[in-house]
Amino acid sequence: MPDMIVRRQIFDVRVGKRGQVVIPAEVRRSLGIHEGDLLQLTVDDEEHGLGLKPVRADPVTKLGRALQDSLVSLSLEPAPADPVTRLREAMKGCFDGVDVQEYIDELRDEWER
User: Fold this and answer.
1) Are the beta carbons of 31 and 25 closer than 8 angstroms?
2) Do 51 and 65 have their domain in common?
3) What is the pLDDT of residues 28-62, one digit of tens each?
4) Which of 31, 87, 81 shows the shortest CA–CA distance to 64?
5) 66 with 106, same domain?
6) What is the pTM for the complete model shown?
7) Which of 4, 43, 98, 110 is deepest in the core (most CB within 10 A)?
8) Based on the domain organization, do 86 and 48 belong to the same domain?
9) Same domain, yes or no, for 3 and 49?
10) Domain extent at residue 106
11) Residue 51 forms beta bridges with which residues?
């Protein structure tokens, strides 16, 4: 689990010529931000300026990424013959910290709308 920043902190960062900003390593570690992660940029009025926060992938997106990663590894490593075992291995960690039944209920509610 990442170390959390427990108070508001302000960091000075410089904008590069392509508009890129480097997020300090301490902040990336604290928020669990890794290369390739999606961030949400909030643009507010002049008083509040800009804000960034990580966009946490839902379990289905995590599963898709895990399956995609497992397909790449299948070409490199021998995979178990049993498809259920392969799926279980691909799904490891996808639903950590998620109440699966609650998630299914939310999806059903969305589908019924």
Assistant:
1) no
2) no
3) 888 888 888 888 888 887 777 888 888 777 777 77
4) 87
5) yes
6) 0.44
7) 98
8) no
9) yes
10) 59-112
11) 42
